[in-house]
Amino acid sequence: MKNSHCAFCNTPIEHNFADLGMSPIANDYLSQDQLNRVEKFYPIRANVCEKCFLVQLEEIESPEYMFGDGNYPYFSSYSDSWLKHAKIYSDMIIAKLGLNQNSQVVEIASNDGYMLQYFQAKQIPVLGIEPAGNVAKVAQEKGIPVLVRFFGVETAKEVVSQGKQADLLLGNNVLAHVPDLNDFVAGMKLVLKPSGILTMEFPHLLQIVEGNQFDTIHEEHFSYLSLLTVEKIFATHGLTLFDVEEIPTHGGSIRIYGKHENAPNPVVSDRIYRVKAKEIQAGLDRIETYLKFGERVKETKRKLLSFLIQAKAEGKVIVAYGAPSKGNILLNYCGIRTDFIDYVVDRNPHKQGLFMPGSHIPILSPDKIFETKPDYLLILAWNLKDEVMEQMAKIREWGGKFVVPIPETQVY
């Protein structure tokens, strides 16, 4: 085990949460001329600390390799539901905090400007911090200022030196991507104004456990967080969590609200206590709960493969929708390749024409579905299943059906 100590509290790590076998980097999509080359596979193993209950992946590649090479393939703006989520959040938080042209909003992992564009449209000063230069460039072309850096204490000092301390510091789906949580949260404390507010969104470990969302575990996600654990991490660095919201994004996330520990307001909401109580009731404060997860994962694999084997035996044509990281983890863990899935479609043109890592399934435009009329559409981006089923409703015209693999295989 490469990471022998907890990334937060430095306790020796002895317990496995889930072992998904060997897989290539989930975002390392292949071009045609790369198909005959040797791919590098890595162990996808998540472990759990029995002291603070931080679930953490063994570090297999550096963040610089995965995010900082200028070829990062994830662009937030290709999901309509995610843009809607960002717009609703921006309207809510602007009103809640009374943000205006004298305020400063800083977003960590600002991607292609999917979020900051809504603040900028209301003349609120913004700054994005984004390590992937290719997606940062898209935001910059919208006129959004972006610092192309990984975030931590050193970047925080740079932001402060520029006079950009935040009235609102936000980050969506970045906390889980950070190998050095202590450096990251210490940097947040520096960037946040004395009276500033921070919000962070990340997949909720409670939903991962209860919803059997094992494909959320991949090499970009170093940490899997409960409120019980994340509260301890922030408190260690002088930040108090005063509110939390349970939200449906990414299969079930939480949005935490934080402030400096010495800031008198806002007061701590009852929701903090309610969500922690829910986690305790689910056993997230007991190591036994974590040790049971791996067996459920194996059962889900068997059920999905049983469905696919039966469908192919009946001569059915199966294609997949979505080429997200979670989809690649699922395909490689289950050993699903072109013998089961003819092709995958994705709306992101940066992925079209490429091939899924490991499985080598081709990625095409969604229009291909209406040409070939498959019997089943396996939704790999299952967290967007409602959006996908609405977009692809026409498959019903030829008797096509949707298949959702998580929490277990279901046909719609």
From TrEMBL:
Residues 248-407 form the C-methyltransferase domain. Keywords: Methyltransferase, Transferase. InterPro entries: Methyltransf_Zn-bd_dom_put (IPR013630), Methyltransf_Zn-bd_dom_put_sf (IPR038576), MeTrfase_14 (IPR013691), SAM-dependent_MTases_sf (IPR029063). The keyword Transferase applies. One of its GO terms (biological process) is methylation. Coiled coil: none annotated. It comes from the Bacteria. Residues 6-67 form the Methyltransferase putative zinc binding domain. This is Methyltransferase domain-containing protein.
